Amino acid sequence: MDRTPGQRKRKAFESISPLALEETITNGSELITNESNSMEISKVEMTITEIEKTMETNLNQADSEIKKAVVQRMRAKRTEDEAKQAKIRKAEYEERLKYLALEQEKKNKRMDTPRPTKKIKRETQKDLTKGLDLQADQAQSTPTTRSRAKGKIRYKPKIINSPIEMTRAQTITQEHENINRTWNLRVDTPQTVIRNRQTIFLDPMLLEKQKQHSCDNRSRAQYLKDLETFKKTLINNPGITMEKDETMECPWSKDKKGKSTNKKKETFEELVMFLNAEQGYLTPEEFVRGYEIKGMPNSKNALNNRVNESLEKRQNMTKWFTRPTRNKKYKLAKDRYLSAVYHSANTGLVTINKLLNEEENDNLKIYGLTSPDERNKLVEFKEQLIKLSEVISNPHRLSAIYSTHTQILDYHVPIPSSEALVDLMLDIQTESYPTSSKSKAMVKFLLAKHGVKTAEMTIDGEEKRIVMGGPGPYREDQIPILVATRHVSEQEISPKKEKLIIEMIRNIIALNTKLNYDEIQWENLDPVWKDKTGRKILMEIVKIEKFHPKGLKYLLKEEFNAINFNNRVFRQNSKTDDCQKTELELQQEKQARLDMRRGKIPKGRIPDEDNCKPETFIKFPFGRFNRVFGKIKSALGNIKQDSTKTNKNFKKKLNGIIKVGAVKSKELERSKVLEMGQKAQLENPSKEEINNLMQVANELNKSKANNHEKIGVISTNPGQTNATIFRKLAELDPDTHIFLINEMRTTKEIINDKTCHPNGYNIVANMTSPDGYIYTCIMYKESLQQYIKQIDCAGNSTGIDLECAEKLTKRFISTYRHNNRDETACHYITNYNRNKMLFAEWISDHTRQAKKDKVILHLGGDWNIDLSGKRTEDNKKLIEALIKATEGMTNLITRNSHFRKNVAPSKIDYFFVGKPDQTKIKALGWHKAPAFFDGHTSHKVTLPFGKPLKQYEVKVNRKIDRASAYNYTLANYTKWQTELDAILDGHERANKSFEIVNEILHKNSIEVAKITTAQSQLKQSIPSDTWAYRKAADMIQEQIDKRPEQTEIRRELEIALIKVNVICKKMFNRDSENRAKKITETANGGKTTFWEIVKELTKTHSNLGTTSRLKNSKLNCTATNICLLLCKNLKNLKPIRRDQQE
Fold first, then answer.
1. Alpha-carbon distance 633 to 613, whole Å?
2. Does the keyword Coiled coil apply (predicted)?
């Protein structure tokens, strides 16, 4: 440290002893007193000079000592700080190890511990005092702590571990210590790589014992010389280095200057040249053909079969572990099981041998392997492990698997036969083997355990592998094969297929864009890039070439189908319409899908596909209603659209009920076909054979019509009824099965008295009328008793449900409307305190309930009103209400039904049906003798007892074998292209092209004629999303009906039902538009399709003497508009000249 001159002097004076200073001063004073002597004065001056020098010397020594002391103190403090930091780091490291060991122990306990079978009982409030749980010594439970405690009581507190399981935590802790100590030292520098690679060739016989490939043309001496060069090259090139020009401003731009080289790629190419010479990288097929390896196939087909068997075995093992009935412990233990298997194939066999000895019976009891069957399974498992050990202990076979297909290793892995065996293997598992299900990673690990070094590199989408060797020493049958192989999913593209791919791309662009074929040149694709659709196609092709494992060869595959195009000329792509939509339309569809996922009703049209499911659309309300909505969403998630299957036992139940023909339809069909000497399906038939099939179809239609099961129903108004009237009805028509009787005005005693019922008939009636009388009833035969169920109907109507064939239910309701002229005596005012409009509400309730129950409704009765509005005395509002209530149904009675003297005939009786197909109606005239039933003529309706009858027809189709045609085209493409290139005339080229197409079709197709049921060509199935939302609406309505008094939850359910119904209506409009669009596209397909569409849209089912009409008004309107449009377009059609007909 620096001092001032005054400080230095003061320090110097302090360093002089007091006695010397006193003596000096005394001597000085004596000299001064003797002024006479000048010599004494000079001596004093000299003494003072010496004192100053002594002071300066002492000052320098003090400075040096101070500096040394400061440096020593700083060094001691630094050493102390470093010791403290080291102590802290050591403590943190020890805490980290303890934490890792504890976490691993918890993880093992969770994986190996089954769930408790019974819930742990919580302590009651009586056992709690002062907020503490006396038994558990914990704070009193609250809603928050109870939710947290669910995870704590997840497993049983007591766990019985196996003998080896107890030491697993300690082993894992040691492994983590080793990893944490060495992780920061694992840095591969060029020097370490060179040192490691020098150890590869410690065995001098490794290169000399190498076998050449059978197709290698080099001499043995040259081969060994190249291997020595391979060794030197491998050691002297340790890693990857990139050399770039320092003057490059933008090294990755298109206008870059300079070069960028990859030394690793160059090294790979050199190594391959020394190993395989002119052969280059070998494919797996070339590898197995050139080397003889024990246990490996030696042909391409055998190799592919072995790979397929290995993949199938891996899938079977995955299915075994992921079976739904398995415990969760085993579902998560597949990778650990594989690790244990590989370990057991080496050292774990000792453990299995000990268990098989009689001394180890106690351990076998722990695993449940004491039975003879389990011991036999353990012995078989041991034999499979021995076979696996022969593979993984042999570097020669492992290197062969690595050089071909690593999936072959799975072929040798045994599948567990029981859960007890898996428990045994999990106890044998150690951390020395990785827990990975990837076969390639396991093969590389097993090779590394033998010291064999490998190298990989991906170049141009191909994976290149090299087996570099190992330190050894190896036996002659265990020497690893030094070879370089390449691994791709498909072979390289041949020049012929390359030309075919180019032409296919040009044609795809020409078909999907407005560019001509000649404008699309492979050397200059600028016009294609400028086109919007062409740019999308090129971008898609670039993605296929870069990322698809098959590359551009995928374009030649039959299953190819991209988003914007496909490789077929006449096949429509399901998503090609998206290319024609504007960006605004696509954005609106995307927004609609997003709104539906959020539970909102979208604006505008609903997209055709990729819509969310109803269980996603329905959102959970907050509160206590989650359980109800959860049931609905769970049911929607599990529901499946099952097609209705015919009841096979229905005809057996029907015996004795209805007269059925002796010959069944299938037997009749078979017998008729055999009589004609024909088959039901003929290939490449002649005209005579087709005519014979048509005759068989006509006979089948006639026979099926005569033997078709039908049921008769009579709707009658006999007036005031008693037991005599009932018997009279049964005698008038004994073949009728059901009678709908109305305007009876009888009493309950007559209906309840079984003696009033005709023999063999039952009668049901609605007895809820306030005045005590019965106005409607239904009488049916007792043979139908097991198929009939009475239902509750509104008002005075009586209804039954008849279970028919093919899981159909038909509902018959007998109705009657009072017609009191005087309002004071009106039946509805006196009994219900309502006006005459109440009857229309009853009819509406019948139709609404039938739709809800999904039954086919039949309404019959006397309504005392003419719905045509011809009579002045009828109420117009009531007529409109009844027409609206019966909308969508067909009235089979089209003529007058009431006849009385001095009164004009009127049409006041009705018989409405939901499906009029193949129904017959007949007026019985029972207002005349011998019945004389109150002026009403009565009607008998004959209905099919099940679905309407289907007609047979003969269809002649041409079946094309697409795969055969595709392969045939690829095989002959070069020949046909050469022939077309040789033709200069355009007309001849077109004719030749058509000849080629006809040749392809005739060579790879057959003509098939068969008898099938007639179907409409315009019929479309209901889309799956429409069907799902309809089901959702039905389920919500069922939940509403179950809760008539729960107002709050009904309100939430009704809100959800309204939203779902709006989606259903939007989907109905969407499906109607799509149906009309399909009809329009079909009409535009050709000039002869007009009459086919008119036939389909105006077709009435007049088979077997029955008639029907189109019930949907929207469909009628659509059909009319399309017919007018087609008629309008027909005017613009030009006649076809004779030379154009071909």
1. 10
2. yes
Q: For residue 1131, what are its two tokens?
A: 């005017």
For range 805-818, the mean pLDDT: 88
Tally the domains of the chain. Answer: 7
Taking Cα atoms as reference points, which of 377, 361, 362 lies closest to residue 425? Answer: 377
3-state helix, strand, coil in the chain (%, to 5): 55, 10, 35
Q: What is the pLDDT of residue 939?
A: 92
Tokens of 517: 């074929």
Q: Among 1083, 1100, 1116, identify where a domain stops.
A: 1083
Confirm whether 460 is domain-assigned: yes
Taking all residues of the chain, what is their mean pLDDT, rounded to a whole number?
73
SS3 labels along 752-768:
HCHHHCCCCEEEEECCC
- From 855, 858, 852, select the one nearest 886 (Cα to Cα): 858
CB count within 10 Å of CB 94 equals: 10
**Which element (helix H / strand E) includes 1068?**
helix 1047-1083
In this structure, are residues 460 and 405 in contact, taking their beta carbons and an 8 Å threshold?
Answer: no
CB 948 within 8 A of CB 918: yes
917-963 residue pLDDT tens: 888 899 888 887 777 787 888 899 998 876 566 677 888 888 888 77
Long-range CB pairs of 555-560 (<8 Å, 24+ gap) are: 555/501, 555/504, 555/505, 556/497, 556/500, 556/501, 556/504, 556/970, 558/962, 558/963, 558/966
DSSP 1004: T
Q: For tokens 């020594």, what's the residue?
A: 61
Structure-block tokens of residue 159: 């766990």
Which two structure tokens, joined as six digits, stand for 144? 């928050």
The answer to whether 409 and 439 are in contact (CB under 8 A) is: yes
CB contact at 8 A, 744 and 777: yes
Model pLDDT for residues 242-293, shown as the tens digit of each residue: 333 444 344 434 344 334 345 566 677 778 888 888 888 888 888 888 888 8
Residue 970 CA to residue 148 CA, distance in Å, equals 67
Residues 229 and 365 occupy one common structural domain = no
Nearest to 1091 by CA among 1123, 1119, 1129, 1118: 1123
- pLDDT for 873 equals 84
DSSP H helices in 707-769? 723-732, 748-752
User: Cα(746)–Cα(84) distance, rounded to whole angstroms?
Assistant: 111
Q: Is residue 696 part of a domain?
A: no
Contacts 24+ apart (CB under 8 A), 971-977: 973/496, 973/500, 974/496
Whether 874 and 919 map to the same domain: the answer is yes
pLDDT at 1009 over 60: yes
**461 and 603, same domain (yes or no):** no
Phi, psi of 872 (to 5 degrees): -75, -25
* 352-365 CB burial, b ≥16 within 10 A, e <16: beebeeeeeeebbe
Among 417, 507, 479, 369, which Cα is nearest to 969's?
507
pLDDT in tens, 1076-1090: 777 776 665 555 555
Instruction: Report d(CA 710, CA 661) in Å as an integer.
Output: 12
Cα(973)–Cα(1000) distance, integer angstroms: 11
Give the closest residue to 1068 by CA, choosing from 1121, 1118, 1025. Answer: 1025
Indicate if 1078 and 1115 belong to the same structural domain: no
Say if residue 837's pLDDT is above 60: yes
Strands (E), 11-112: none
Is 552 found in the same domain as 520? yes
How many percent of the chain have pLDDT more than 70?
69
Domain holding 54, by residue range, is 5-111
Indicate whether 435 and 370 sit together in one domain. yes
Cβ atoms of 295 and 391 within 8 Å: the answer is yes
Q: In this predicted structure, what is the pLDDT of residue 813?
A: 95
Residue 679 lies in a domain: no
